[in-house]
Amino acid sequence: QSALNQPASVSGSPGQSITISCTGTSSDIGTYNLVSWYQQHPGKAPKLIISDVNKRPSGVSNRFSGSKSGNTASLTISGLQAEDEADYYCCSYGGSDTFVSFGGGTKLTVL
Amino acid sequence: EVQLLESGGGLVQPGGSLRLSCAASGFTFKTNGMSWVRQAPGKGLEWVSTISATGAVTYYADSMKGRFIISRDNSKNTLFVQMNSLRAEDTAIYYCAKLQSKAFDIWGQGTMVTVSS
Question: How far apart are the CA of B32 and the nearest CA of chain A, in angstroms?
């Protein structure tokens, strides 16, 4: 069982926006602004798309955005495109004992 | 080009050992923390271990403590993980990743480890 809780699947039509939630605790997401999000296409390595809650690495589309409220972080993808269909994972720092934990992953289907 | 290239995966019997390597290029290896993350077949990502830039500080997931040892050779730009007492549940693709703050900003292509008799 993953330390962070994500929905198993979400779906949306091209052009729409979707949001993936990631629920942790006061020991990780609730305390640290160190949430990251990863996109993984089948058979490929994960790719960092959001760091430090809401920072986009160079080259990542501005259609991807991150936020946090309390113990829950969120990834929003706007203007859905077919290429966004992938698995998405959240990750949070949890202090020196835990270091980091991943969510179980969310499969995004673009209808 | 920034690149991480893992090697050393393969088939090992339960209780056996394996050492994975990750060769880094295109960035200043000795100034960055590094990590191992694994993914069992059809499953999600699982953080394994992290080592500081100098190698002085290491972190392990609970299920790996006492069995896995992470290390690095900054003179050879290489990250390692020594995996002992391997179990069937350790079967996974093992990725090495560069650490930026507490995010993994660069990933290798992964190396498959299969623990089976």
Answer: 16
The rounded distance, in Å, linking the Cα atoms of A101 and A94 is 7
Choose the closest CB to B101 out of A34, A46, A47: A34
Contacts of B105 in chain A (CB under 8 A): 48, 51, 57
For the segment A50-93, what is each residue's pLDDT rounded down to a tens digit? 999 999 999 999 999 999 999 999 999 999 999 999 999 999 99
> Rg (Cα) of chain B, in Å, rounded?
13
How close is the nearest chain A Cα to the Cα of B2, in Å?
14
- C-alpha count within 13 angstroms, C-beta hemisphere, residue B27: 20
Q: By three-state DSSP, how is residue A85 classified?
A: coil
So what's the pLDDT on residue A1?
58
Q: Which two tokens stand for residue A21?
A: 């939630």
